[in-house]
C-alpha cells in the first residue's frame, strides 16, 4: 500500500473493483428485462449510444474528482473550489451521493437476500431437506430478515478489510467467477428448444419503438444505475487510483466491461424466457406485454429450472449464484461510500465505521421489509429516478463550470501526458460543460 488511506495495487485490481461495482443486478437482470419490454435491439442501440456518449463522460467526471481529491466524496468535491458557496454546494452533492448509496444498499440487500435464498434452495432439494426447501421458497418476514442481514454482514466483512485486502482482493476473485458462470449458462440455454426465438427478439430491432420517448428515459436511467453514477461511489473509487494511471482509459475499460456484460446477460435471460415459453410457462401478460420483472425472476425462471429435473437444480443454483456474486461486488462499493467518509471525517477506525454504518443500513432495510408495499418502490424511485441523475448532473456541473480548467487538465494529464492532443480532450470538457448537464436535465424533466 503506497498511502495511508489505501490505494488499488494494480490497474487490473481497479478495473475489477470498479467493473464489479458497475456490473450488478442492473446488468444481469435490469438490462435484459428493460430490453425485452422496450422493443428489443432498438433499446440496445439507444442504450449503447447513451452509455458511451453520456454515461462515460459523466463517469470520467466522478473519477477525476476523486483522483484529484484523494479523499472521501465530500472532501474531494470541496477541494475543487475555495469559494464558501461552492463548498456548501460540494457538501450537498457529496453527502447526497453518500446517502443515496446507503439507501440503494438498503433495498439492494433485500433483493440480494432473495437471490441468496434462491441459491441455497436447490441445494436443500438435492440433499433432501423438504422443510428447509419450503422455508426458503416461501416468502416470509423471517426469511427476508435473515438473508438481508446475512448479505449485509458479508458486505461488512469485505469492506472492513479495506481497499487492497477487501475490495480489490474480493473483486479479483468474484468477477472471474461471475464471468465463468455467465458463459456456462449461456452455452446451456442457447442449446435448448425455443432459444433462437429469444435471440431474434433480442437482436432484431423494432425501430418503431425508437419513437417512444419513454425509451430514452429508461435507457438513460438504466445507464446511470449501471455505471453506479450519482452515488459518490465512483468518486471514492477514483480516489484510490494512483496518479500514475491513465484515467481516461481506465474509465473506458469499466464502461466497456459494464456494457458488454449487460449485453451478454441479455443472451442468457431473453432466450431463457423463450425456452420457458416453449415449455409452457407464461412469459407474456394477456395484453402481450412482458410479465413484471419480479414475476419473471422468481416465477418464470424457477418454473423453467423445475421443468428440467435434476439438471435444473444445478442450473438454478448457478443462475442465482451468479446473481448473488454480481450483487455482492456492487454492494461493497455502496458501503464504501459512507464508510470512507466516516473514517476520514470522524477519525473512526475502519472496522468501527463499517459495523456502525452497516448496522444503520440494516435498520433501514428492516424498516423497508416491514413496510414493504409502501417503502420498497418508493426508495427505489427516489434513489434511481431522482437521486442518481440529479447528483450525476451536479457532478458534471462541478467539473465543467466550477473547477479551474487548468487544474482539471493537469489532473487528467497525470498518467496520460499526451492527453491534450487526443480527441478525448477536444470533446470531453465541452461535453461535460454543456451536453451532459443539458441532456440529463431534459431526460430528467421528461421523466417527471
Ligand atoms: N451498478 C450496479 C448495478 O448495475 C448498482 C449500483 C448502483 C452500484 C449505485 C453502486 C451504486 O446493479
From TrEMBL:
<dbReference type="InterPro" id="IPR037272">
    <property type="entry name" value="SNS_sf"/>
</dbReference>
<dbReference type="Pfam" id="PF00209">
    <property type="entry name" value="SNF"/>
</dbReference>
<feature type="transmembrane region" description="Helical">
    <location>
        <begin position="89"/>
        <end position="116"/>
    </location>
</feature>
<feature type="transmembrane region" description="Helical">
    <location>
        <begin position="215"/>
        <end position="238"/>
    </location>
</feature>
<feature type="transmembrane region" description="Helical">
    <location>
        <begin position="386"/>
        <end position="403"/>
    </location>
</feature>
<feature type="transmembrane region" description="Helical">
    <location>
        <begin position="12"/>
        <end position="32"/>
    </location>
</feature>
<keyword id="KW-0812">Transmembrane</keyword>
<feature type="transmembrane region" description="Helical">
    <location>
        <begin position="145"/>
        <end position="163"/>
    </location>
</feature>
<feature type="transmembrane region" description="Helical">
    <location>
        <begin position="423"/>
        <end position="445"/>
    </location>
</feature>
<dbReference type="GO" id="GO:0016020">
    <property type="term" value="C:membrane"/>
</dbReference>
<keyword id="KW-1133">Transmembrane helix</keyword>
<dbReference type="InterPro" id="IPR047218">
    <property type="entry name" value="YocR/YhdH-like"/>
</dbReference>
<feature type="transmembrane region" description="Helical">
    <location>
        <begin position="250"/>
        <end position="274"/>
    </location>
</feature>
<protein>
    <submittedName>
        <fullName>Sodium-dependent transporter</fullName>
    </submittedName>
</protein>
<keyword id="KW-0813">Transport</keyword>
<feature type="transmembrane region" description="Helical">
    <location>
        <begin position="311"/>
        <end position="335"/>
    </location>
</feature>
<feature type="transmembrane region" description="Helical">
    <location>
        <begin position="175"/>
        <end position="195"/>
    </location>
</feature>
<feature type="transmembrane region" description="Helical">
    <location>
        <begin position="355"/>
        <end position="380"/>
    </location>
</feature>
<keyword id="KW-0472">Membrane</keyword>
<dbReference type="InterPro" id="IPR000175">
    <property type="entry name" value="Na/ntran_symport"/>
</dbReference>
<feature type="transmembrane region" description="Helical">
    <location>
        <begin position="44"/>
        <end position="68"/>
    </location>
</feature>
Amino acid at each position: 500500500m503506497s498511502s495511508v488511506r489505501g490505494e488499488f495495487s494494480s490497474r487490473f485490481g481497479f478495473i475489477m473493483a470498479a467493473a464489479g461495482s458497475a456490473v450488478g443486478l442492473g446488468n444481469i437482470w435490469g438490462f435484459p428485462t428493460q430490453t425485452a419490454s422496450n422493443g428489443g435491439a432498438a433499446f440496445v442501440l439507444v442504450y449503447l449510444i447513451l452509455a458511451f456518449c453520456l454515461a462515460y463522460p459523466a463517469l470520467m467526471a466522478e473519477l477525476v474528482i476523486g483522483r484529484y481529491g484523494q479523499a472521501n466524496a465530500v472532501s474531494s468535491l470541496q477541494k475543487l473550489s475555495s469559494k464558501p458557496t461552492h463548498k456548501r454546494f460540494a457538501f450537498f452533492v457529496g453527502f447526497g451521493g453518500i446517502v443515496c448509496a446507503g439507501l440503494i444498499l438498503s433495498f439492494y440487500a433485500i433483493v440480494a437476500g432473495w437471490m441468496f435464498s434462491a441459491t441455497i434452495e436447490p441445494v436443500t432439494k438435492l440433499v433432501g431437506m423438504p422443510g428447509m426447501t419450503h422455508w426458503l421458497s416461501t416468502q416470509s418476514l423471517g426469511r427476508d430478515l435473515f438473508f438481508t442481514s446475512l448479505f449485509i454482514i458479508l458486505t461488512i466483512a469485505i469492506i472492513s478489510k479495506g481497499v487492497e485486502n477487501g475490495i480489490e482482493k474480493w473483486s479479483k476473485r468474484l468477477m472471474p467467477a461471475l464471468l465463468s458462470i455467465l458463459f456456462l449458462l449461456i452455452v446451456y440455454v442457447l442449446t435448448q428448444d425455443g432459444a433462437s426465438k429469444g435471440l431474434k427478439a433480442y437482436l432484431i430491432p423494432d425501430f418503431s419503438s425508437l419513437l417512444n420517448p419513454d425509451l430514452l428515459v429508461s435507457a438513460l436511467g438504466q445507464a446511470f444505475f449501471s455505471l453506479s453514477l450519482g452515488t459518490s461511489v465512483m468518486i471514492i473509487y477514483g480516489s484510490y487510483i494512483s496518479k500514475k494511471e491513465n484515467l481516461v482509459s481506465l474509465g473506458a475499460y469499466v464502461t466497456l466491461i459494464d456494457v458488454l456484460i449487460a449485453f451478454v446477460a441479455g443472451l442468457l435471460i431473453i432466450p431463457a424466457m423463450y425456452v420457458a415459453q416453449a415449455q409452457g410457462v407464461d412469459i407474456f401478460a394477456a395484453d402481450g406485454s412482458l410479465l413484471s420483472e419480479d414475476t419473471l425472476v422468481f416465477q418464470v425462471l424457477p418454473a423453467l429450472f423445475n421443468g428440467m429435473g435434476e439438471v435444473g437444480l444445478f442450473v438454478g443454483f448457478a443462475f442465482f449464484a451468479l446473481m448473488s456474486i454480481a450483487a455482492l461486488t456492487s454492494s461493497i462499493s455502496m458501503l464504501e461510500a459512507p464508510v470512507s467518509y466516516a473514517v476520514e471525517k470522524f477519525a473512526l477506525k475502519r472496522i468501527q465505521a463499517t459495523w456502525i454504518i452497516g448496522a444503520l443500513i440494516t435498520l433501514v432495510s428492516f424498516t423497508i421489509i416491514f413496510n414493504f408495499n409502501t417503502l420498497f418502490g418508493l426508495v427505489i424511485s427516489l434513489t434511481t429516478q431522482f437521486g442518481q441523475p440529479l447528483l450525476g448532473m451536479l457532478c458534471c456541473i462541478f467539473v465543467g463550470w466550477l473547477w479551474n480548467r487548468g487544474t482539471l487538465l493537469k489532473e487528467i494529464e497525470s498518467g496520460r501526458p499526451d492527453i491534450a492532443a487526443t480527441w478525448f480532450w477536444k470533446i470531453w470538457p465541452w461535453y461535460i460543460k454543456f451536453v451532459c448537464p443539458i441532456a440529463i436535465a431534459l431526460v430528467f424533466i421528461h421523466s417527471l
